[in-house]
Design a protein that fits this description.
The protein has 11 helices and 17 strands. By secondary structure, it is an alpha/beta fold. Helix 1 crosses helix 2 and helix 3 packs parallel to helix 4. About 45% of the residues are buried. Bound molecules: (4S)-2,6-dioxohexahydropyrimidine-4-carboxylic acid and zinc ion. Its EC number is 3.5.2.3.
């Protein structure tokens, strides 16, 4: 990372902050791009900041076949401006019925980078998800054989379990046996929200000197705790799944993200929903953070005095875990403000972005 460190005027000179940061082009390892009008409205935000992104398959209907993933990949590329230098990395949506050979073929043909486990009913468009992980054991066996990573939405769906405990219970009841039964299956624990998840990931033994489990961390889980959802009233734009937890969990996530530990990397979980679907008697889960994702992460790293570890989190740990090359080229962020709009027009319906109406402290400039 090349950065001319100098103190900001008016700031403590013992804490020097660079005027700009130039880092290797980053990737986003967890993105919802949607389809149709919404895809056309949002795809460019991700492509502007990131070289590649893991594309979540929870469309309606979900992306369960190689043909569906190819079609979706084509629609993503068509939705982008002509000059966009962006590679969507496609994922398969696991159902109780998915065929192991379909996944293995998709992986071999370079269409499926990974497969996503949604416990049925856990989140948006997860009705076709897995009802019992035992149902996909033949699939996991095949994925382990071909070296295809399993991405997990790590929450149990039992309504008896308190919503704030669903991640911790998943780790114990679902993920622990899966890791034991498939000792060389690579796993990404998506959008970690708890100290339990951080400890779980760091406690797992490596395979031949490489981590077999990693976790993505979102900007929103780094920036607010559950209090924000209820500050002065109910705030639907802070609602996502897994739901934000207590402050001590947020602090554990910040320590993990900024630690330099290669098992933690950037995954925004940007998840746009039209404003009426969020501001509703039964509002959808999801935070649309793509427009200023890198700026938000940079702010967290600055606050934690860990800007020297920013590039590893944004641009190195993810590709190394997935066994993909690091990107060529760079992006530059300047220590300058941007005002986040209150609302973005998507051509059809408005979408409220993460940090609407706030000022970021970093600005992507190239
Ligand atoms: O908040 C979320 N929104 N969490 C998810 O797991 C899915 C996502 C979506 O697709 O809207
Ligand atoms: Zn997601």
């Amino acid at each position: 990372m090349t950065s001319p460190y100098r103190p900001l005027s008016g700031e403590d000179s013992s804490r020097s902050v660079p005027a700009s940061l130039t880092i290797r082009r980053p990737d986003d390892w967890h993105v919802h791009l949607r389809d149709g009008d919404m895809l056309r409205a949002v795809a460019h935000y991700t492509a502007r900041q990131f070289a590649r992104a893991i594309i979540m398959p929870n469309l309606a209907p979900p992306v369960t076949t190689v043909a569906a993933a190819r079609g979706y990949r084509d629609r993503i590329m068509t939705a982008l401006p002509d000059h966009a230098d962006f590679q969507p990395l496609m994922t398969a949506y696991l159902t109780d019925e998915v065929e192991p050979e379909e996944l293995a073929r998709g992986h071999e043909e370079g269409v499926f980078t990974a497969a996503k486990l949604y416990p049925a009913g856990a989140t948006t468009n997860s009705a076709h998800g897995v009802t019992d992980v035992a149902n996909i054991y033949p699939v996991l066996e095949r994925m382990q054989q071909v070296g295809m990573p399993l991405l997990v939405h790590g929450e149990v769906t039992d309504p008896e379990i308190d919503i704030f405990d669903r991640e911790a219970v998943f780790l114990e009841k679902v993920l622990t046996p899966v890791l034991a039964d498939f000792p060389s299956l690579k796993v990404v624990f998506e959008h970690a929200t708890t100290e339990d998840a951080v400890q779980f990931v760091t406690a797992q033994p490596e395979i031949d000197g490489s981590p077999r489990i990693a976790a993505t961390i979102t900007p929103h889980h780094l920036m607010f705790s559950r209090n924000a959802i209820f500050a002065g009233g109910i705030r639907p734009h802070f609602y996502c799944l897994p739901i934000a937890k207590r402050e001590r969990h947020r602090l554990a996530l910040r320590r993990a993200a900024t630690s330099g530990d290669a098992r933690f990397f950037l995954g925004t979980d940007t998840a746009p929903h039209a404003r009426p679907a969020k501001e509703s008697g039964c509002g959808c889960a999801g935070i649309f953070n793509a427009p200023h994702a890198l700026e938000s992460y940079a702010q967290v790293f600055e606050e934690e005095e860990a800007l020297d570890r920013f590039e590893a989190f944004t641009s190195e740990n993810g590709p190394r875990f997935y066994g993909l090359p690091l990107n060529e080229g760079t992006v530059t962020l300047a220590r300058a403000e941007v005002e986040v709009p209150d609302v973005l027009t998507t051509g059809v319906e408005p979408v409220v972005p993460f940090r609407a109406g706030e000022r970021t402290s970093w600005r992507m400039v190239g």
